Amino acid sequence: MLRNRVLLAVSLAVGTAYIGIGMVGPVRVLYAEAQGASLEIISAMASAFLIANFIAQYPSGWLSDRWGRKRLMVGGLLVQGLLSAAYLLITDPLIFVILRAAEGLAAAAVLPSARALIADATPPEKRGAAYGLFSAFFNAGFLIGPALGGVLATTAYSNAFIGAVLCRLVALLIVLLLIPSARSQGKTAHERESAVRRSRALLSLPLLGAFVLAFGDYLFLGFDLALLPLWMNQHLGATVAVIGIAYVAWAVPSIVLAPLGGRIADRTRRSRLILIFGLAQVPLYLLYGLADTSIPIIIGFAVQAIAYALVQPAVDAHVAAASAADARGRVQSAYATVGLAGAFAGASGLTVLYGLDFRLPLFAMGAAYGCCVLLGGLMIRRSEARGLVAGPHQQQRPPQPAEVEVAPV
Questions:
Q1: pLDDT for 192
Q2: Closest-CA residue to 254 (of 219, 304, 295)
Q3: Is the dihedral of CA 252, 31, 340, 362 positive or negative?
Q4: What torsion, rounded to 10 degrees, do the Cα atoms 349, 219, 84, 179 define?
């Protein structure tokens, strides 16, 4: 894996870019508030980003398949850098909402293209390890970014945004210098027709299982964006520093163990990993809901991160194996789009439950996540048994005409 230049370049570029994202994550709201933004405007900023990112996901994937993954990453990183700089020039809080929407559009161009590039550059038998390494860099960005941003913000909020701009520029240089441009090749009419059929196979059984998993997985993202800091601070007595420690407790095991999880995913049945270690996380939500202090949450996050590090590379490798080469960008974008739908459901539905009782969102999230893992994992297991997707040491059966459109569930 360490000899794969494209994999290392993509992982390093995304990790560096997400250091920049992490730098301004805890600062942006405070900066907007200092410029006179109301709570409604701050909420609108978050909504604008999520909605724009949701809308742009599939078009970005389509463009990456048609226009080129490297080009789309370059464009997305360049626009992200310019938008981070724009915060330093604007003082009207309403414009911040527009900036966040634009950031959502630009962000959609980066991650699906990066994941598709990894699938393009990695043989099927090593994709689990490849996505495990990628996850380690990705999580490292989220760990390092907030720490650096917090230090820079102690002098001035603007310094965090300057740091974010520099990180995007470094990531842009990595992509430009280290990732080769794909050669454009002409296609026959038969190849074009085959690509169209494959692009319609987003509802095939293997991908449907992955989409169900994505929806359940992203429920926690919605809870994180809308409620987690509020829940820990108001009901568990956690300070901002303790909340930060909880995030570190999640990030460190993910960084360390994700490469190991990827190697395991290349050696065993992926549906087995998904079902065992996915369902193992469900009791932790019960623990979170019953907790009255932050200590069980920090311990639970560390344990859950270990299980998650053994699940996510298997899911990523499965999605890559179930994607046709001409439609990988679209598949990755569809996967992220379904996940964002889960985040919306989590942010809105769990907020309603939170108003009734602060413990209810944790219980409901655990039940919903468990159902998604069970359903999605069993769908993936069935697709493996039918030869619709190749797992470790398995040969994928060529799809039959009826299966190209929509496989029966």
A1: 44
A2: 304
A3: positive
A4: -150
CB atoms within 10 A of CB 252: 16
Residues 6+ apart with CB under 8 A from 293: 236, 237
pLDDT in tens, 292-312: 999 999 999 999 999 999 999
Residue recorded with tokens 């689990």: 128
Q: Which amino acid, 225?
A: L
What span, in angstroms and rounded, lies between the C-alpha atoms of 139 and 343? 19
Rounded-to-integer distance, Cα 321 and Cα 374, Å: 20
How far is it, in rounded angstroms, from Cα 331 to Cα 322? Answer: 9
Whether the CB-CB separation of 278 and 311 falls below 8 Å is answered with: yes
**Rounded Cα gap, residues 283 and 265, in angstroms:** 23
Phi/psi of residue 156, each to 5°?
-170, 140
Comparing C-alpha atoms, which of 159, 99, 133, 149 is closest to residue 14? 133
Domains of the chain with CATH codes: 1-179 (1.20.1250.20), 201-392 (1.20.1250.20)
Reading phi first (left if > 0) and then psi (alpha if -120 to 50, else beta), residue 182 is in beta
**Which tokens go with 259?**
């490469």
Question: Where are the extended beta strands (E) located within 234-288?
Answer: none
- Mind listing the pLDDT tens digit for each residue in 136-159? 898 888 778 877 877 787 788 888
**No. of H helices and E strands in the chain?**
17, 0
Cα separations in angstroms, 35 against 40, 88, 91: 14, 11, 6
CA 407 to chain centre: 26
Q: How many of the other CB atoms lie within 10 Å of CB of 79?
A: 18
Helices (H), 35-89: 39-66, 69-86
Crossing angle of the two packed helices 5-34 and 157-178, in degrees rounded to 10: 160
Nearest to 77, CA basis, from 145, 30, 10: 10
Half-sphere exposure of 18 (CA within 13 A, CB side): 20
pLDDT tens-place string over residues 23-66:
887 678 778 878 888 867 877 887 788 889 889 988 888 888 88
Q: Are 50 and 114 a contacting pair, CB within 8 Å?
A: no
b/e per residue 104-133 (b: at least 16 CB within 10 A): bbbbbbbbbbbbbbbbebbebebbbbbbbb
